[in-house]
Specification:
- A hairpin with a 2-residue loop joins β3 (about 145) and β4.
- Helices cover about 70% and strands about 5% of the residues.
- It has helices at about 5-30, 45-100, 105-125, 175-180, 185-200, 205-255, 260-285, 290-294; strands spanning about 125-130, 130, 145, 150, 160, 170.
- The relative contact order is 0.16.
- By secondary structure, it is mostly helical.
- It is rod-shaped and about 125 Å long.
- It has two domains: about 5-35 and about 260-294; about 65-250, f41 fragment of flagellin, N-terminal domain.
Length: about 290
């Protein structure tokens, strides 16, 4: 087989192009820190990385759900804690009203009880994210006095947040449960009756009111206990999700990332090979027609 000068020239150019391509690839990996730049680099590893990235996005969404659910729980807990404080103050006032018989003092106590009832109504009608905090799915206020009777105006809707593949938590409570509408007497009616008893100097009514206020406090405390359990579940879910995300990130790094020291060494080797190819081509291209004639 005859080897021509032109054939040698083309072969050298092909080797230079190949060497340059390898050098560019090594340089790209070192600069980006990624072993896989495109699916064709390693289809199997790319498929694994994509699957793990999808799993990580799912976990990140679950974490956002958990954070939002935690916000619901914390806000409801804060409002109910405040409600407990208001009821505790009402109980203190009722005990004081039951002790003294001065009508003017009882009237002043009754006025403060009325103000505390209005505060309780404001707490029950708190809104969050466009809906009543204690109204289920309803956007209206949770409680209102309709035709002289305190009424729960929300629904039984449950605000759920998915914090895992098979774990869904209910992050809301309703005023129907929290404020005793399902019992013998709701907290607002209790406060109305106590105010009336104080204004009318009804000793028996005041004594009954003290007992009913305690019952209302117990109802709110029971709801708070349930919220605490939900909050603990969310906290546990957040820790688990955080661990899952960290593990997935480590696995993705193992699949996609390069060892920086190895990447730099590879780049230097390819640069040396490319330089050598250029040098060899330059030396082989110095031949002239006279060299062939000699």
């Amino acid at each position: 087989m005859r080897v021509t000068h032109l054939g040698t020239h083309y072969a050298a150019l092909s080797r230079i192009a190949g060497s340059l391509s390898e050098f560019a690839s090594a340089q790209e990996k070192a600069a980006s820190g990624k072993r896989i730049q495109r699916p064709s680099d390693d289809p199997t590893s790319m498929a694994k990385a994509l699957a793990m990235r999808a799993a990580m996005r799912t976990s990140e969404q679950a974490l956002r759900n958990a954070n939002d659910g935690e916000l619901w729980v914390n806000l409801a807990d804060s409002k109910l804690q405040s409600g407990i404080s208001q009821l505790q103050r009402v109980k203190e006032l009722a005990i004081r009203g039951a002790t003294f018989t001065n009508a003017d003092e009882r009237a002043a106590i009754a006025a403060e009880v009325g103000q505390l009832r209005e505060t309780m109504v404001e707490l029950a009608n708190t809104h969050h994210q466009g809906r009543g905090l204690f109204s289920g799915f309803d956007t209206a206020d949770a409680v209102a006095k309709v035709a002289g009777t305190w009424t729960y105006q929300g629904d039984a809707g449950q605000v759920n947040r998915r914090v895992g593949d098979s774990e869904v938590v209910t992050v809301n409570v309703t005023a129907f449960d929290a404020f005793g509408f399902g019992g013998a007497k709701d907290v607002f009616t209790v406060l109305d009756d106590l105010e009336t008893a104080l204004l009318s100097n009804d000793q028996a009514g005041i004594d009954t009111g003290i007992s009913e206020v305690q019952t209302s406090m117990d109802t709110v405390l029971t709801t708070l206990t349930g919220l605490g359990a939900v909050g603990a579940r969310i906290e546990g879910a957040k820790v688990r999700i955080g661990d899952d995300i960290a593990a997935l990130r480590a696995q993705i790094s193992n699949v996609e990332d390069v060892d920086l020291a190895e990447a730099v060494l590879e780049m230097q080797l390819q640069e040396t090979a490319y330089t050598a190819a250029l040098s060899a081509f330059a030396r082989s291209s110095q031949s002239s027609l006279v060299d062939f004639l000699r």
